[in-house]
Amino acid sequence: MQNFEYCNPVNIVFGKGQIAKLAELVPADAKILMVYGGGSIKHNGVYDQVKKALEGRTVLEFGGIEPNPKYETCMKAVEICKSEGIDFLLSVGGGSTLDGTKFIAAASKYTATDDPWDICAKLIPVTEEIPIGCVITLPATGSEMNGWSVVSRLSTDEKLGFWSAASFPKFSILDPETTMSLPERQTINGIIDTFVHVCEQYVTRPANTPVQDRQAEGVLLTLIEEGPKVLANPKDYDARANLMWAASTGLNGWMAKGCVEDWGTHAIGHEITALTGTDHGKTLALVMPALWKYLRKEKEAKLLQYAERVWGITGDDKDAVIDAVIEKTVEFFRSLGCDATRTAYGVTDEIIEKIVLVFERRGAKITECAIGAHEVGEVLKLCAK
Ligand code: NZQ
Ligand code: ZN
After folding, report:
1. Distance of alpha carbon 60 from alpha carbon 89, whole angstroms
2. Residue with CA at minimum distance from ligand 1 atom 31
3. Are 196 and 340 in contact (CB under 8 A)?
4. Measured in whole angstroms, how far is the alpha carbon of residue 304 from the centre of its chain?
5. Mean pLDDT by 10 residues, the chain (385 residues)
6. Which residues are CB-contacts of 323 (< 8 A; sequence separation ≥ 6)?
7. With contact defined as beta carbons under 8 Å apart, do 245 and 219 qualify?
8. H-helix or E-strand containing 343?
9. I need a surface site. Which of 11, 59, 94, 110 has the fewest CB within 10 A?
10. How far is the CA of 94 from the centre of ligand 1 (A)?
11. Residues with Cβ < 8 Å from 375, sequence gap 6 or more?
């Protein structure tokens, strides 16, 4: 196992009716900016629950954070934070709202350069943020239990992430009932996003990490069991609850510690979203099988372990087992209703060229094998047509 340091400071408040706990979780004298998305919280009762819990408090509101939150929108909220002296940010919604809130929290206190976009573009370390709390309504990103944020800039077609210890929410409320109003498409995206998060920490190369491997396998098996239950019966509270906890534990950092990580599928997927607007989860379903095909030798040991322990696929012919498990993974995504193809998402040869240029310009090496721009192009060509 590799050396590591780790501390996850998020106070998780999980279960039915827990939004009422906001009253005790948010500091009594805080001037709060409640940040939300396009309005789902006004249709499913979450907005009313939050307002009730915070009755009598000073709460300003900022709605309109988009899926794949935009820098341009977040900067409008930064103006409010500065002019109103906001000292607590409450994110209510999905991962995009929370990621946007993390950027707003960091950008409001940012002084290192003229443009807070440098936090993402130049990875200027964030030292101070407005404290954040969150009510998460979409199990997918794990943002409620990590320090990551991913923000897009319209003017440059970029989608970039940053991590900061200051970005961990002070608390995250996870009420599975809030997820019952999710459109099926978002439930599917969430299952796939979680699945791929786990794979990016697990299907790499062995590092003598049996605890973390079994954590990963536990979450994958849970998604395989519980995902179809939720799609068959969206009001199944227990299955919703299990998906929600799977998403949070899938990207709270525990199972990656001491392991070799990949994150190539995410790096490529973010560029597809930036250029085509394809949902985050769908880009991952498209890219991961292709990346596994491309790196099948490098990932051989873990692909074989994944095949045996998660899908029960074994055999003497290693290549045949790897082919079978890649196909099984694609079938799983398809069974959820995600038939990911380049054609469906507009990933044309021209888009592939643009993505290769982005990686060339950045000079970035991705995956545990440190592949570069040329290889990214090869992976994209291997994606299902
Ligand atoms: O905007 P509203 O009206 O709230 O509607 C949202 C949005 O349209 C809707 N929604 C959310 N909760 C709902 C609901 N509709 C009905 N009922 C509910 N309970 O769902 C739509 C999608 O929401 P969004 O927040 O965009 O989805 P998700 O949580 O999947 O977040 C995706 C973003 O997170 C980033 C992705 O790149 C993408 O930008 N990621 C963040 C990560 C992190 N911070 O650690 C890691 C991930 O890998 C990912 O990159
Ligand atoms: Zn993701």
Report:
1. 10
2. 95
3. no
4. 26
5. 91 98 97 98 98 98 97 98 98 98 98 96 95 98 97 92 96 98 98 98 98 98 98 98 98 96 98 96 98 98 98 98 98 97 98 97 95 98 97
6. none
7. no
8. helix 342-345
9. 11
10. 4
11. 294
Ligand nearest to the CA of 95: 1
Q: Whose CA is nearest to atom 8 of ligand 1?
A: 67
210-232 vs 184-202: helix crossing angle, rounded to 10: 170
Backbone angles phi, psi at 171, to 5 degrees: -150, 155
Residues with C-beta less than 6 Å from any ligand 1 atom: 37-41, 44, 67-68, 93-97, 99, 137-138, 140-143, 146, 148-150, 178-179, 181-182, 186, 189-190, 193, 251, 266, 280
* Protein residue with least CA distance to atom 41, ligand 1: 141
Do 15 and 45 form a contact (C-beta atoms < 8 A)? no
Nearest bound ligand to the CA of residue 68: 1
Strands 148-153 and 132-136, bridge-based pairing: unpaired
Dist. CA 383 → ligand 2 center (Å): 18
- What pLDDT shows up at residue 157? 86
Token output for 4: 């590591």
Cα(280) to centroid of ligand 2, in Å?
7
Q: Which two tokens stand for residue 328?
A: 């099984």
